[in-house]
Amino acid sequence: MKKNLIKNIKAKKIITGALALVLGASMLGACGKSDAANGENGAQKLKANGKVYRTLDEIKKSGTINIGVFSDKNPFGYVDENGDYQGYDVYLANRIGKDLGVEINYVSTEAANRVEYLESGKVDIVLANFTVTDERAQKVDFALPYMNVALGVVSHKDKVIKDIEKVSSDEQVIVISGTTAETFLEKNYPDIKLQKFDTYAAAKTSFENGTGIAWANDNTEVIAFAKENEGYEVGIPSLGSQDTIAPAVSKGNESLLKWLNDELVTLGKEKFFHADYEKTLIDTYGADYEDTLVVEQGDNK
Amino acid sequence: MDFNVVISYIPTYVDAFLLTVKIGWIGIAFSLVIGILSAFIMHFKIPVLSQIVAVYIELFRNTPLLVQLFFIYFGLPKIGIVISAGTCGAVGLGLLGGSYMAEVFRSGLEGVSISQTESSLALGFSKTQMFIYVILPQAFSKSVPGIVANVIFLLKETSVFSAISLMDLMFRAKDLIGLYYNTTEALFLLVIFYVIMLLPVSFLGSVIEKKVVSING
Q: Which of chain A's residues have a Cβ under 8 Å away from the Cβ of B202?
């Protein structure tokens, strides 16, 4: 009797387990297929079977826009002592909200989930120091750029890393998961051991604690870190290619993208980003970096 | 879903799987040792130690693992104690699990009915003999279901290791999504590998539980 009971339970367990697996797999398979079927004219098809994003009109009608920003990346996007979002990205976000005539709902993002937030429609715009790359551009739509960026490496003053090739195999370089620094090092220097964190705050604390010999990130970020904290030096101020940072919207959200591009051109005319720099970044970088960092539309190109 | 992508991801998932399993089971072994010791201290009401254990149990049962890991990994270095991420994960899991295991063992010990004590004393057992031959075996078999549940719980708790840069299954999936944006494939493998990790445990657990129940009668 008891043996039978055990056998029954065994069989039940195996069946439920298998069922769960099949169910999970088929659900995921189904999502995948619909994605593939959408193909090139995905935007229209997505609309037909429930698009993820909100159009410009829908945002205006709802009276609120969801903007994804960093909450721990001073001076670009962070929460100040009063609990308010501040920084270079947030300064732009506030202006966008004002010009759209809607309230802003800030959504705190991590580097690795910026694409997902747009793909799942959790935010309308990402303004989280989002570097434009080809891989990302396949998944989201970037507007015109508003900032320049390259990678940089900061290390402890007593052992400054000036050449990324000189990192030995038993040393670790800190990166943040989902950043361009991570992608760049994974692709070009696969032998370097990376210590990965999912938030800026965790990476910073860990670097200060000395668990990694260097920290690779956007050069703006490492320069700011070295200026604000004693005992660190940016040994490599520029690594990899020069990139730009731009607002991003969900793939196919053309009405919002067009509005953003027009907005950025208008803002360029009034030198908005120079004002933004002088308001949010000058304390950290001084006046020297203003023209290298800031991009105004209509300025160049 | 692109199965070529899935296949290309498998090796990195296997690495993450092995790391998760290794740290998970080391942590569980820790938690069993801590749990048994704490339960004995509580059971025999050893002065001072039992108060310390009571505070430990309440502290660790009522704080999330993530907070404990942050404290060990980011907090302790500030006072000069630097622990590697792997050790930190195992210690954190062991301390959290220890507090849960202690409660399981303690309730197992207390669950042995008083008539058992009375009978063995009446039969002329010494207190030590009574504890080793009568109380302990029954207490242990009463604890088994709780232990199995805790083992599964602890293995699932490993998913917060990403906070301290341990490349466990969860972090592997998040990291791949951040690198290549193939969300569906990465999440699919994540589910599969967690099932592979946990299904045998819950299966074995239920077999052992049945065995123990039949011993208890």
A: 13
